[in-house]
Amino acid sequence: MNEAMALLLLVGGVLLLLGAPIWATIGLASASYIWVQGFPTNLIVQRMFNNMDSFLLLAVPMFMLAGEVMNTSGLTARLLDLAHVLLRRLRAGLAMANLGTNMMMAGISGSALADASALTALMKPKMVEQGYRASFVAALTAAGSIVAPIIPPSITFILFSVLADVSVIDLFMAGILPGVVIVVFQMFTVNILSRRGRIPAHDAAPALKTGVALRRAIPVLILPIIIVGGIRGGVFTPIEGAAVALAYALALAVLMRRIRADQLLHLSWDVAKGMGEILLMIGSASLLAWVIVAEQIPAGVASTMLSVTSDPLMLLIIINVLLLLVGMVLDNFAAMVIFVPILMPVVQQYGIDPVHFGVIVNVNLMIGSITPPVGLSLFVTSRVAGVSFESSVKEILPFIAASLLALGVITYVPALSLAIPGLLK
Which residues belong to any copy of the TRAP C4-dicarboxylate transport system permease DctM subunit domain (predicted)? Predict the structure, then answer.
């Protein structure tokens, strides 16, 4: 290892120990490498701006704000009513409705944390009243929320598209069936838990009539149809689709008088801060990616992988384990911007479809987001539900197992990811 790389690792390690934001850790560590190597310092700014200068990233804050408006205005509660009406006759009907609502909400915001926190607040009173443990509500909602960035529209797929130069439309279409597969596996888990007496088998929660629930939910359900159908049909680009989604969400909230001007201002400020952090992450990752290429790390990783195995299936096992471990401790944005530039050249050498790989990366990192020791989504739902993180960890283990089984199916049945993009070409 040369002196510049040693300094990069030292600076990065110290900053992590000091609790610095991940974007600052990556950016300053990479900048120290460039400084020691004697490259012009303006290279730092140029490389950081390189990936941030992407027109596609304009879609991210608009999708984020659209989801926040729908959650804050209470419109997502209508999805819960519909899911409860449709699923209440199944065993553990309220738990099934929780997962069904998560799947429908995924087509609106593309943000796991936003959906998880909003739905936990909605579901906890209803489910606790019917005999569910609050810790179970937190765990179930966190587990169901992992499909939010997988089913389109997806903020993380937009980021992957920028980092890997892959069609975002293909990625959106590729996430539909894998997202459904994950929800189905989790629903089977709920059914098993109810049969074993660990959660109520039936509930008596009052439900709206089917026609009423459907009529109330239709305006909300139209939104993902407009987004996905419009983008796939060529009516508008992903960026224009994000603008349409935001305009539609605002129009609904205002016409139904479910949002105030001060709330909208607060949400806009939160989204702006979040987008600022995302851009800083992308900029610092772009700088790190340049360092990685300069050090010929992708070639080294590829040669190491080839020496270990020449089987693409075995390679995917190694990558799955790596990304799951990374997802346990890093935010999915941070993990993606660090590892996608390293792994993309490797999977291309093995002939793995980049769209399929994008789905695998996303699913791995989202499962990691509900897995201890960090489990950010689980931490958020535990806090909203007012229970300890430790108690929620015990409840979520069966759902982590179910999600891992779904990941195995998604990994080794590429058709689940590639069928819809292939049909629509």
Answer: 14-416
